[in-house]
Amino acid sequence: MTGSGPVRGVLAAALTPMTADLTPDLPAMIAHFQWLLGRGCDGLGILGTTGEANSFSVAERLSIIDAVGESGLPKDRLVVGTGTCAEPDTLELTRAALAAGVKSVLMLPPFYYKGIADRGLAESFARIIDRVADGDLRVILYHFPRMTGVPITAGAIEILRRDYPDIVVGLKDSSGDLGNTASLLEAFPGFGVYTGTERYLLPALRAGGPGCISATANVTSPMASDVFRAHERSDGDADARQEQLTAVRRVLDGFPLVAALKEAMTTITGRAGWRAIRPPLTPLEPARERELRDSLAAEGFDLDAVDPESSPRSALAKP
Amino acid sequence: MTGSGPVRGVLAAALTPMTADLTPDLPAMIAHFQWLLGRGCDGLGILGTTGEANSFSVAERLSIIDAVGESGLPKDRLVVGTGTCAEPDTLELTRAALAAGVKSVLMLPPFYYKGIADRGLAESFARIIDRVADGDLRVILYHFPRMTGVPITAGAIEILRRDYPDIVVGLKDSSGDLGNTASLLEAFPGFGVYTGTERYLLPALRAGGPGCISATANVTSPMASDVFRAHERSDGDADARQEQLTAVRRVLDGFPLVAALKEAMTTITGRAGWRAIRPPLTPLEPARERELRDSLAAEGFDLDAVDPESSPRSALAKP
């Protein structure tokens, strides 16, 4: 990745706090983003799957993007999700991200129709890039076949890398398949393939990837950051740190992720409002709340010990 | 179904003609809807999968609903698709349908997140119904697991039938599984389960269903109408007519449906503009255009012989 490309390292796919009426709680959201940047995150993925982006209307997403734009958050450390089913919506959100000072966007494919041809898939991204017509735009393709049913195929990547080598710079691989991450990194030199789970952070870094964009980094960011930094230093304890991180991630993978992470933030902050989640997602069942805390504690990760105000690194300056 | 419920019989999931810049061609669209109602369709499903609804922004969908509202189309024969991933969008579209005089809506579940609990799924529909707060509303749930990955489960139907028996009146079963249609009809007496393919029109009618809402009825409506009417008359040739219809449907099922139907309309009308389709969908490859015509002709269905102006039944009065 060049200096103008998306940020390397640990990116949390940030949660979106909501008010009691299930609309985005913008001040709480900005505070959460600042907290994450002060807690080992090199960057943030905003309005992704974990951020419940697809449950928000375009107007609600624009309000989130505007709030980010007006905040003091470092824009070069942010990636904003802008992909929707409908081309005009994706176009509007992408333009808004750029207008807010965020150049890197995470783009889902149009995900309603299935069985899409490579050329149709590539064309849907190309039409957005052509219309945005801004050389500063950096697109990270969002590969999440379990949610979308529309995989970002090697054939589509090939077309887009050929036609937009400086703009289509990366992919978030949420397939859960490390083999796919590694084979894309090998097939497309210079293409920044992030793993979607910090379970594979170290192997993905060793395969040449830029890092992870991960849901669970909302709570595990210091541990993930340790892995990343140990790898950067070629430190011998990277493997041991990855092992600890993997154990915690494995616990979280046993729960519905967004609900579990909102529950974890409820425990960390003591603020019950963190549980607010928009249907069709549902809050964690009470019986599972304790299970979550206890299972994490069994791996040495004590939610009650996390400082809700902690800021080991400045939220406003690159570490 | 009561008199105030959605229409029985053959409903085409109507195509949306587009202009050369791939935006909805509203005059051509209204003309197509009138043509279908004059060609054996008892009703129309507007803004469904075949209508490429999910490729349109909310603003574009509203323009379509407004055009329908201002047209002379008989509103009691229409069903408008309003379900999206985002609650505020579904709410706005549903209100717009009612304001346009269309009481029956076809509602997709929020379809981004997978592995949804029954209560979360039911809650997402309930929140729309509660906010619309209009006793005239009639909701047909849209079960299309291959596209959505979010099946409308019997558990969710049970909650909704219990809480909104006069509003949640039906389901479009696009699972392609006749067994599912039959078992839902049996499990929920009085619930109007439409088959999503006219391949199963006659068996679904015999199982007590109200009819079909089908993509291919854009071109097969007279044949489907013959099956429906033969069934209504308890006419002995219903089976033979269904067999002919099934053979034609089987041909169409060998092609990407929306592209194939737009190609068929191109042949019928001689208007090349009918091929316009929004990415990620792609027009039928030229090599397959002739294959489509020839395969249909082999089943006795000659696209060139279809009268683009034909109006065997009045478009404006119920037959």
Summarize the SSE layout with pairings:
The structure is a homodimer of 319-residue chains.
Chain A: E1 9-13, H1 26-37, E2 43-46, H2 58-70, E3 78-81, H3 87-99, E4 104-107, H4 118-132, E5 138-143, H5 145-148, H6 154-163, E6 168-173, H7 178-187, E7 192-195, H8 201-206, E8 211-214, H9 217-232, H10 238-252, H11 257-269, H12 286-298
Parallel strand pairs in A: 1-2, 1-8, 2-3, 3-4, 4-5, 5-6, 6-7
Helix pairs in contact in A: 2-3, 3-4, 4-6, 9-10
Describe this structure in words.
The structure is a homodimer of 319-residue chains. Helices cover 44% and strands 12% of the residues of chain A. With 319 residues, chain A is an alpha/beta fold. Chain A has one domain: TIM Barrel, CATH 3.20.20. In chain A, α4 links the parallel β4 and β5. In chain A, α3 crosses α4, α4 runs parallel beside α6 and α9 runs antiparallel to α10. Chain A is globular and about 50 Å long. Chain A starts with 8 loop residues before the first strand and ends in a 21-residue tail after the last helix. Chains A and B meet through α2, α3, α4 and α5 of A and α2, α3, α4 and α5 of B.
Largest sheet of chain A: 8 strands, parallel
The shape of chain A, in one word, is globular
How much is the average pLDDT of chain A?
95
- First and last CA, distance of chain A: 18 Å
DSSP E strands of chain A, number: 8
State the helicity of chain A in percent bands: 40-55%
Structure summarized in a few sentences:
The first copy, chain A, is α/β, with parallel strands linked by helices and 319 residues long. Chain A has helices at residues 26-37, 58-70, 87-99, 118-132, 145-148, 154-163, 178-187, 201-206, 217-232, 238-252, 257-269, 286-298, and strands at 9-13, 43-46, 78-81, 104-107, 138-143, 168-173, 192-195, 211-214.
